[in-house]
Amino acid sequence: MKIIEKINRCISEQKPFYSFEFFPPKTEAGLTNLYARLDRMAPLSPTFIDVTWGAGGSANNELSLELSRTAQTYFSYDVMMHLTCTGSTADEINRTLDKVQASEIKNILALRGDPPQHGEKWQSCEGGFSYASELIAHIREKYGDYFGICAAGYPEGHLESASKDSCVRFLKEKVDKGTDFIITQLFYDLEEFFEFERLCRKAGIKCPIIPGLMPIQNYQRFKRFTDLCQTKVPDTIQSDLEAIKNDDAAVQKYGIDLAVKMSQTMLDKGVPGIHFYTMNLETSVTEVLGQLGLLTEGMAYRTLPWRPSTVSKRREESVRPIFWSNRPKSYLARTMNWDDFPNGRWGDSRSPSFGNLNDYYLLRQGIGLDRLRESRQKMWGSPQNLNDVHKVFAAFCRNEISDLPWCEMPVHSETNRISKELERLNLSGLLTINSQPQVNGADSEDPQVGWGGKGGFVYQKAYIEFFIEKTKLKALLAALEDFPSLTYHAVNKANEVYSRPTQPGINAVTWGVFPGQEIQQPTIVDPESFMIWKDEAFQLWLTDWASLYPKDSVSHKVISEIPETHFLVNIVENNYASGDIFEVFSKGNFLDS
Amino acid sequence: MKIIEKINRCISEQKPFYSFEFFPPKTEAGLTNLYARLDRMAPLSPTFIDVTWGAGGSANNELSLELSRTAQTYFSYDVMMHLTCTGSTADEINRTLDKVQASEIKNILALRGDPPQHGEKWQSCEGGFSYASELIAHIREKYGDYFGICAAGYPEGHLESASKDSCVRFLKEKVDKGTDFIITQLFYDLEEFFEFERLCRKAGIKCPIIPGLMPIQNYQRFKRFTDLCQTKVPDTIQSDLEAIKNDDAAVQKYGIDLAVKMSQTMLDKGVPGIHFYTMNLETSVTEVLGQLGLLTEGMAYRTLPWRPSTVSKRREESVRPIFWSNRPKSYLARTMNWDDFPNGRWGDSRSPSFGNLNDYYLLRQGIGLDRLRESRQKMWGSPQNLNDVHKVFAAFCRNEISDLPWCEMPVHSETNRISKELERLNLSGLLTINSQPQVNGADSEDPQVGWGGKGGFVYQKAYIEFFIEKTKLKALLAALEDFPSLTYHAVNKANEVYSRPTQPGINAVTWGVFPGQEIQQPTIVDPESFMIWKDEAFQLWLTDWASLYPKDSVSHKVISEIPETHFLVNIVENNYASGDIFEVFSKGNFLDS
Predict the structure, then answer these.
(1) CA–CA separation, B191 vs B264, rounded Å?
(2) Residue A282 sits in the same domain as residue A382
(3) Which residue of B has its CA nearest to A488?
(4) What is the pTM of this model?
(5) Which of A146, A171, A458, A536 allows an S-S link to A512, with CB 3.0 to 4.6 Å?
(6) pLDDT (tens digit per residue) in B64-115
C-alpha cells in the first residue's frame, strides 16, 4: 500500500504515527538477528519501515531488496526502499525499479546519494542522474503513479548547498516532480526543524513533512554520526552528554528522555508523526514510543486475530485455518502461490494446493532460523524419555521456554487464560501444540482477545490440538461419546483417521460481529487443511527437534519415535456459550495422574 | 432436486414425509386461488408436490407446465410434473420434455394416461407410446439421468388389467425401465394396499412405494370419484358416510379422522411417507398432518430465516437483503437474471443489477394477485386523511389485516415480540413496513426465531423500517445523535439522503453459528440495495393502494401524497447484546402522543 495514503489517513484521524528505518547488516549473523528483531517489532505496528540502499556494490543492493521483500512478505510491514543515483546509469536504475515493482514494493525514498567515498565530491554516472529531482521525475515519467515517492529534507541545509534557501528550493523542485511526502535528516535542535518547516511552507511545499529522529544510544556512535553529517548539537545536550559519556546505560536513558521530549514538543506543535532512525536496535525506540503513550493504542488494535500480510494479492485475505496460527511464516510460504485468498468464507475461494514444505525450509535458511539450533538445544535439553518431553511442553505453557517447533512465538497473552489447564494436560499424557480459550461475545477492544476495532463483539470456540499415544486416544474417543458438542479429527502418520462428524465440514472457530459490517470469521478448522498440516506437524519432530542430537543418541531416538507412536488430534467445543473443552479429559480417566 | 434423493434421505433418517398433488384449475379465478393456496401451504414443507397433466389440449398442458414452474420458482416447492402418452406422438413428448427441462423441473410422473373420453378404449397415437413403461424407457434413453421418474401403482389392479398379478408385472417392467419410486392410486381398503405391497416386493420391486391417500371432503365428489375409478370402499366406511352424507362438515371431519387413522396404520407398518390427493384444497390435509404430529416438526425447522428457492442456480444462495423480506416474490422476480447468487457473503458475489419492477408486475398478473383489489379495498378502507392511514398500519400490527402493499403476508410470529411497540409507533407518526426483534444467541431450534437446525445459536440485530414525514425526520436525526450504536439510512423519492455512517457498508443483521460450520449470515442491510428497494417501496403507494380509488377521490389524494412528503428510513441497532432500538423514539419527543 502507498505510505502516503496511510499517512493521510492518520492525519485525517488526528492519530500520530511513527515509522522505523533499518539498514542491511554487513554479516549474515547480523541479518539473522535483524530478522528476529523485525519479527519481534512487528506488533509495534509502525506505519511503515524503510530500508536503506546498500552503499556501493550490487550485492549490497540485492540485500536491500531482499530485506525489503522479506519484511513485507513475512513480517507484514509496509516497506519503503531507498534508491540513490550514485554510481548507477538510468538503465541500471530502471532494472532495479523493475525488480522493486515485481516484489510488490510500492514506496521509494529517492535520494541523490552520498559520494562513493566520504570526502570525495559527488559525481553523476555517465547516463545517470545528478539530482534526486531528476530521479523522481524519471520514476514518475516511467512508472506513473505506481510508486509512492518520498524525498529527504535537510533542516540544517544540505552539506553541499549554498544556503538553506537554495536547499529548500531544491526540495520544492523534488516535490514539484512528484514527491508525496518528506522525511528530514536527523537533527537535535528543534528550532532548526521548525525554521525549516516554515521555509518549506513559505516556498509552497504542501505535502507532509516528517521529522527524522535518532535516539542517542551510544556516545561514540552519536559523536561520529553528528560529526560526519555536521549536525548541529545544542550546547546543553553536548555538555549533558560529556558528563555521562562513559556510562552507556546513562547515555541510552538520556537519549530516550531527549527523544521523548523532542517528539512530544513536535507532536504538540502539529507534526503528524515521527520517523525513527533505529540503527537496527529496538530497545530505545520501543521505550520512547511507550513513554509517548503511542504504543498501547497502536498495539491494542488488532485488525484480525492474526497479523495480515501487506502483500497486495493477499490484501483481501480474511480467513485462515487455525493450524498454522503459531507458524504463520510457514503458512505464508506454503500458500504464496495461490491466485486468490479466502475472503469472508474459507469454503468458497480456497485454493486446493498447499506448497511443498521445502518452500518454507528455503525461507528458514534465508532468514537464518536454522541458526537457532544451539539456543533450542539449550531450551529443550536432551530428553532421555517421553516424560522429559512432556516436561518441556509444560515449561512452554509456563512461558519458561520461548518456542517449540510448532510454535514460532511464545504463548499468546490470551492463552494465559487456560495455561494452567494446558500445563496439567501436558504433564498427564498430552503434548499440546495449539489452543484457544472460549470467548462468548467479548468487547472487540478487549486487550486480550479483542480485534477488529470499536463497538463489536468477538467470539471463539475453544480449541485444543495435541499429540497423544494411540492407547490413550482410544480411551479419549470413548470418553468423547458423552460430549456431543465436541467435534474432532484424529490422524496419525499412516493416515488412520477418527473424526466427528464422519463427514466433517469447515468450522468457524473465531468470528466477530461489528456495527455496519458483514460477519467476520478469520479462523476456521478445516479437515482438508488439517491433513496438510499434520504432515508438517509430524515432520517437525524430526527436522526441528531430533536433528539437534547425534543420530545414535537416546534423545534422537526418543524424539523420532513420537511421530511413529502418536496421533495428532484437534478438538473444537462448539458450545461456546456454556461448554467446557477440558471436561472430557477429566472424565475419561485415561490420563496419567 | 430429484425427489428420490429427498425420499431416500427421509428414509435413512427415519423421518416420515408427505407430498401433495394439485391439478391445473379450469378458470383463471381458480388459478388465482390456487396460487394463493400454494403460497399459504408452502410453510407445511411437503417433500414435493406434483401437478397433473391437463387432460386434453395443449393449452391445458401449457398450464400444467406454467403452474409447475411458478410453484417451483416462486413458492419454492420441489415439483414433479405428470406426463401421459395419451394423444401425443414421440416428437410432441420430446418437445414437452425439452420445455420441462428448460424450466428446471427435474421430476416426471410417467403415465399412460386415461382415454381421451371416459368409457372409450385407450388407443396410442400414431408414432406415440402404448405403455408407461415405453415412455419411461424413452425418457431414460433420451435424457439419461436428468429426470427423476415416478410411476403409478394400482393397489386394486388397473381397470384394464387382467389380474393384480399381471398389473404388478407391468409395474415391474416400469421399474426395470428406470422408475425411481412408485405412488399408488387412491384406495380406502388398507388390506388392498398391504397386499399390493407384498406382491410388488415378491415380484422383485425394491424402490419406495408411497401410498396415495384422498381425504374424503365431500360426499358427492367422493362417490363420483370412487365410482369412476371403481375403487373398493369398505362397507363400514360406506355405511358411516350414508348416515352423514347430507352434513358436509361431518363428512369432512369423518374424512380427516379416516385419513389420520389410515396414515397412522401405514406409517406404523413402515411406509416411508404419504402422498395426498388434495383436490386443490388445504384444510383437510393440513388438519390430517397436524393430527399425525408431522406438522410441527416439518414447520419448526427453517433452513434459513427466509424460504430458499428450489431453482437450481439459486441452490447456493444464502444471503439476501432484508428489504424484500416481506415481498420475497418481488425479490425473486427482480433477481431472476443474476448469473450467480450471494453465498456466505453479500459483498463478494452480488450481481449489481436488479431487474425492472415491471418483471414483477407481469408475474403478479400471471399469478392473479391483481385480482385482490376488492379484498384490499375492504381491508384498507377509504382513508380520508393521514391519520386513517396510520390506523390501517396499526391494525396490521394487531394482525387484524392480513397484508399491506409492502407485506405480502401477515406479520411473522417472531414479530409478535415487538408488535405492541410497532402499533404504538404507527399510531404516533411512523408508518412501519418491516422490522425484526433483537436476538442474542437464541437456540437455533427456538420455535419463533430459530433456523438452520440443531445445536446452533442464532442472532439478530433489531431492525425497523418506516415512512416518516420530513419534519419528524429532522427531529429523529437529532435524537439519533445520542444513540451511537444505531446505524441508519433515510431517503426520499427525490434522493435526498441522510445516513450513518456516511460511507455505509454491508451490515449483517441475521446470522447463525452452528457446530462444525462456517458462520451463516442470511440477512443483510445493504445501502445499495436499499436505493433499489426504496423506488419499489415509494411506487407501491400508487400502484397498490392509491389505484384502488377513483383518481379524483379524497382517498386517492391522501395516499398518493405520502410518497411525496415522506422519507423511507431504516435503522439497525448494532448492539444486539443490550441495545434497545425503540428507545430513540421515546427520547426524541417528536412523535405524536
Answers:
(1) 14
(2) no
(3) B516
(4) 0.79
(5) A458
(6) 888 898 888 888 899 999 999 887 888 989 999 999 999 889 999 999 887 7
